[in-house]
Amino acid sequence: MIGVNYGRLGNNLPSPYESIELLKTMKAGRVKLYDANPEILRLLSGTNLHVSIMVPNEQISAVAANQSVANRWVRDNVLSYYPNTIIRYILVGNEVLSNKDDQSLWYDLVPAMRNIKKSIDEHNIHNIKIGTPLAMDILQTSFPPSSGEFRLDIQRNNLLLPLLRFLNWTKSYFFIDVYPYFSWSQNPSSISLDYALFEGSHTYTDPVSGYVYTNLLDQMLDSVVFAMEKLGFYSIRLAIAETGWPNGGDYDELGANTYNAATYNRNLVRRITSQPPIGTPARPGSAIPTFIFSLYDENQKGGPGTERHWGLLHPNGRPIYDINLTGHVPDAEFSKLPQPTNNGPFHGKLWCVVTKDFVNEMDLGHVLEFACRRNGTCDEIAPGKSCYQPVSIVSHANYAFSSYWAKFRKDGETCHFNGLAVQSTIDPSKDP
User: Fold this and answer.
1) From the candidates 18, 149, 242, 380, which is the catalytic residue?
2) Is 95 among the catalytic positions?
3) Is there a catalytic annotation at residue 18?
4) Each residue of 307-363: pLDDT tens digit?
5) Cα–Cα 20 to 30 A to 177, which of 53, 117, 227, 279?
6) Burial class (CB in 10 A: 0-12, 13-18, 19+), 244
7) pTM of the full structure
């Protein structure tokens, strides 16, 4: 069964009822929530969808510190719906070990998992697994896969080993968020796009293990397997908490397009749903529970354009491309995909300008003020300066956004400005 992450940061998304009906239509087998939304859990009652719920990061410390808090969380978010709602996973936190600014939370993670486990055990519930989704940045090294090793700043004795012992003891899964898109787009000259998309005949042989890899996802998964084995854990199963490919992005975001997204996700579905299971070279024949990210494009997210384009569906519920999550529909039965135009580097000039559909000049004014706070950004739109004319909030914002982005892009700033800006190939000073 393939699952789907229920993205939550979109504007004017379909209702929970409509969303669940869409999941059924797509033949999803699982759905993963980033909380334990009561309305959604009620609506999932009586369906065949297997459900993953989450203890949000901000609740982990309280759950870890007090068994009664854990008991209350389980009562409110599990017992109120189970077993009519088929809850199969409780995930404690989301990418907790990626947040280096709050390392105290790291050490509350396993105690919180233990307290949740103790609470469900007291109710004789034995078919719900407890885990925590981690990102690939937990690894210090990942290539070749046999070199896989956990980050050195994550303490072995006080954190990693207790986590792995818990997963091993409870026969749970090591949940990993794994995105071949990022590995490929950061190294397109050394990694084949077809290899990242499960296409073509390219292979890679690990020089130490001798395992032969036919795709990038397997490489990344096995690097986690080898990291666990280096600490003495050889049988903890893998689950993919998030994976996918962006269907769009900014002009300079390589390979983010509908064609590649459909190709990746369709091939992923066929691979994961194969019977018997394929597994990976290091774990042949192992079934890997998998959740695609995400159900909807999340158009309220900040950051680069790809952040808002991982959905299988537009925010209005329309499919972005054809996909069937059973893996039984051949590509020939799907509508033809638009050919990609951005699989190579973008060489043109870019500006950051006000989006055409902005509606509130007051909001635009606040963001313009923010962009002009840093020294030198807006000097040329001051009265009497070269770019003061024409005097309009849009033209001034076009200058300020482009100036700010040009100056601070290298520091990670993006052309977004609370959703009021987009990249453009047209110089706004010459745009009629």
Assistant:
1) 242
2) yes
3) no
4) 999 999 999 999 999 999 999 998 889 999 999 999 998 888 898 898 887 667 787
5) 117
6) buried
7) 0.92
